[in-house]
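Convert to structure. Protein one:
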Amino acid sequence: MQRQEAQRKFSLGAPRPLLLASISDAAGSGKPVSLLPRLPDPAALQASLQEPLQRLAGRAKAPAAPSERRPHRRHHLRAPDLTPQFAAAAAVAGGVLAAISQAAQRVAAARPRLHGRRPPNMPFHQSFRLPWDRRGTASGSARATREAVALAKALEARGHEYERTLDVRAAVQCFEEACRLVPGSVPYLSMAAKCWSDLTFYYDVRSDRERQLVNLKAIEYAEKCIEAAPQSVFGHVALCVSKGRLALFTDNKTKVRLAKEAQLSAYKAIECDPENDVAHHLMGRWHYEMAQINFVLRTLVRVMYGTALLPGTRQQALDSFRRAAELAPQRLIHKVEAGRVHLELGQVPEGVAQLEAALQCEVEDINAWHTRMDAEKMLAQVRRQPYKQPSLIPPHALQQEAAAAAGAAAAPAASISTAALLSGDRQPEIVAAAVQSAAAADAPASAA
């Protein structure tokens, strides 16, 4: 009995003491010792597994029909049926497109045919283009732009010609029209500002109010020029000239404020282009004018700006004028102003040399014309010679007045007055003359 129990434990993997005991007992009995466990009977094993297999087979049912399937409770999402909504939207869109098409056809039918170039049987999609369809428009706009640029150049050339003949009022109209044709052009805007400011000392401007208005117009164009190109020297030069001249006809407080703004514009002009002769000339004019201010203005400058706006000196003005003359030896105004300062500093030989050299320079505009008169007057005073002040009316205006008084049929056309310009009047014949000159210049080129 004990042997059978030990063999049973050995077969089931008994502990090591029992295993050794079983082996010794089996060896004592004389029977062969088996170290392999006993395998169960196959029939008994199949009978024991039959019931679990049946239970598993009962759980695996046949797949349910599609209509009997239940959606997962956590993801119970069903796609909505949007067919009616899509149909309604398509109907609305179709109606809108049909209405647009009918309206477009009416517009296309109402548009006149351009010189017969549009055939009557042209398809609708070719005869009418939507606003964002740029085909056929770019070439026309480019052609119009080229024509505007060409006309603006002709007006610029005519404006410079009027400047040389001292007809500043006609030059104003030329440069204003050029600004209208080519908006944002720095040369045209700066020249319009210059010409408006040059009217300050024109012969038909007799009141301080008119002198203020012409310089306010000049400031307007100068500010547009700076807005178009902040780093261009021309806008800052024009703004400095306009504010400096405007300061001459204002009260003391405004005069000091404009003097400060003119100084900043002159500094900015030199910063933009250190080689610009006019910028250095303006800095010299600022030093010269500030050196001559009276005690009241000096006190007001000290109260308003302290040491930030120190009065200039004649020596600083002379240095700036000489630098401007070095940069542009052919410009008359630099030599005249340098000669003036030399004389005031007691340097008579240097001043006379500068003034005599200035008389050899060309008169390029109304400013040079007036400055040349100053040079002749100063030389006459130094030499103690009599001096007769010439007429301040430009030669072209004298010719026009003489021809009109004589009733000549071929009298030159006179430009309108400065007061008429300020009121908004213009002369279309000036632009027409520029157009004719541009056409005459293009004719030989096209023939060649």
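Protein two, convert as well:
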Amino acid sequence: MFADWDQEYVLVSDDPAELEAEIERLRKENEAMRSAIEDVADTAEQGNQLLMEESQRPDAASGSGPQGSASPTGSTSASTSQAVRKKETAAAAVAAEKVSTEELLREFQRVRAKIKGRGSKEREAETQEPAGSVAAPQASSSAVSAPSGSASGATSAAASLQRQPSTVKATSAPASSKAAKQKGDPVVEQTDDPMDIVFVSAEVAPWSKTGGLGDVVGSLPIALAARGHRVMVVAPRYLNGKSDDLYESAKDLHSPLTLDLGACGEQTVSFYHVHKLHVDFVFVDHPCYHRAGNPYGDEHGVFGDNQFRYALLSLAACEAPLTLNIGGYRSGEPPGFPYGDRCMFVANDWHAGLVPAYLAGRYRRNGVYKDARSVFAIHNLSHQGVEPASTYGNLGLPDDWYDPLSWRYPDWASINGPAVNILKGGVVASDRVVTVSQGYAWEITTAEGGWGLDGVLKERQHVLNGITNGIDMVEWDPSTDEFTAAHYNADDLSGKAECKAALQRELGFDVDPKKPLVGWIGRLDHQKGPDITLDSVPEMAARGCQFVMLGSGDAKYEAQMREHEEHFKANYRGWVGFSIPVAHRIIAGCDVLLMPSRFEPCGLNQLFAMRYGTVPVAHATGGLRDTIQNFKEDAQGKERGTGWTFNPPDVPTMMRTMDHVLHVYHDKPQVWREVMRNGMGKDLSWNKAAKEYEQIFKWSRLDPAVRPW
């Protein structure tokens, strides 16, 4: 069935229909592969258990009967021989299954690497490590931050099979290990305080994603699970036709639940479940999530019932740990029981802002979740879930909880009057508040960055912390990247020069290693500063730079990108749209990545750039200021910095900074390489962020729970 694994995979058509058929064929092959791996893994586990049982029997080792009494004459040798034969047979079976499993996993990894990125992101969920595989994967960060569809899950499972039988437990959480790992990925140590953690979010990649929120909720829970925690993620089950197949692997738990949403009446939801990489992904199913468009709206604008949709999600998420029998994946615990009410909830953005309010206002006052705690994570403060005050009755909260959510539109808003602000409720009712960077945690307490909530956030500043997001260290790895022309690392940068030359050829530029190649990747939105970037193109061209932009969004910026291509043919290329392979090639091939964002809660592109030895030049705001160590001329080694930052975000200031950047690039190549290597040496993994979240969780348990209002 898999005889052609050693054949190089080549796309044979650009026709969308043919490509879709090819992707479907590959999906079915991978499904068959997954089934084969499960069969082999189960057989290996059974062999391991048999071997352990035989080795632990007293008569197998010594020939003694119960309580050490002597066996009848002749039976001792027969019993011993039989036990030895069983033991040898089991050992041989285990050894054979280990070999076949490792071979299967290696081939599975090769197949996944061939098709990764060929189709849509939706197919990635089909090629994940099978749920319930033989043993917990090795706790390396290649498993922690593996994207859907990456090969790291297979690698981890193979590593697990190489452990001694006495350490294999089918229900155990990931164990600490120093097994082989991706270069640059730190070994993941185990927590000494395992918790039951429940993430609630409107998005979770790869099932639903419109931006960074989906990436975070698709990665951070996996990192925490790899450290030994039991983790659940609760998100909507969006069905709109195109993405229905994403949820094919999610099994109906047949646990319908009726929820009371106040004036909205009783609503019945169902739950679907996927156990992947030691995380319970739970999807709430209701007709309000079955519609065309993205999670929040369609071509006509945002959905008018979003308040109802995410209130329903929040209440369902509060019920899930109490009612769903999906717990039991920690060592020594049988599966099939609820998580219980001593959970740590992580509510993400306004869509989950009612979770802390429900815990304190509905459950805790009735004796439930007395020992639970909630952390409210702000990814983007500009979206707050504000609706007129008359909608408060739709939320299913007690009357005396109106004040924590009450709000008035600021003077600059187009709407006036009293309102309910769900994000405010999350800030006020949670035990701890986190943002996606330390810089953003400070900015949101200022009038300039607080979006009308700076006063509320200042009052909670004593429980407000910033934790910088991580990145997927497997998907974004210059030593293995499948989309780039060459591979390289901090010790050997020759491959980066090849990537630059390949990108210059692809874009139609002169292939000249001396010409600085500058890139910009992002959404064509005012926040990201595309106007600043586009207005700088003439000056970039005058300085001899080659410049490439990749992005889509505002039509006026797309038009300006096309105009610049006509006027600056030798120096500028604009790619309208978005392509994951092209993004990888720009990150790997450019010398500089430009990021003049007006505000940036965290930012990911600067992290990708540093991982690839591409020097970021960015506005000193939010997560950009936190993650980029500004260049210091008179420093040495790691103190030299990892990039350049500037302020304010305008063309003159940015170009003055670029003049300094180009001076170092042209005249101090050794210093330039030092800056490149400094960025490549940073720990950008999700494991680092996971440890910081653990500290927040511990602090929240030391604080008294938020009382009923």
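DSSP finds 22 helices and 21 strands in the chain. The mean pLDDT is 80.
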